[in-house]
Amino acid sequence: MSLMTVSDVAKFLGVQEARVTRLERERLLVSVPDSEPDKPMFDQDAVAKYKELAERLGGL
User: How far apart are CA 49 and CA 25, in angstroms?
Assistant: First the structure.
């Protein structure tokens, strides 16, 4: 499992870091349970699946 920071996810999805933080807070993008509350980490595969789903639904 490869982990991504908020910054990495933002670059991958092409959005601002604040949007990634909001997606995590709303549980639309789930962080890894072992990550610190103020520094969430995300599984790269889960982020890729989220991006694919979002694109199918009309975009991010």
Answer: 18
Give per-residue pLDDT as tens, 39-59. Answer: 899 999 999 999 999 999 987
pLDDT digits (tens, 9 = 90+) for 3-16: 999 999 999 999 99
> How many C-beta atoms surround the C-beta of residue 32 within 10 A?
13
Please state the pTM of the whole predicted model.
0.88
Closest CA to 26 of 40, 12, 13, 14: 40
CB 19 within 8 A of CB 55: no
The CA distance from 58 to 32, in Å, is: 26
Q: With both helix axes pointing from N to C terminus, report the angle between 17-25 and 6-13 in degrees, rounded to the nearest 10.
A: 110
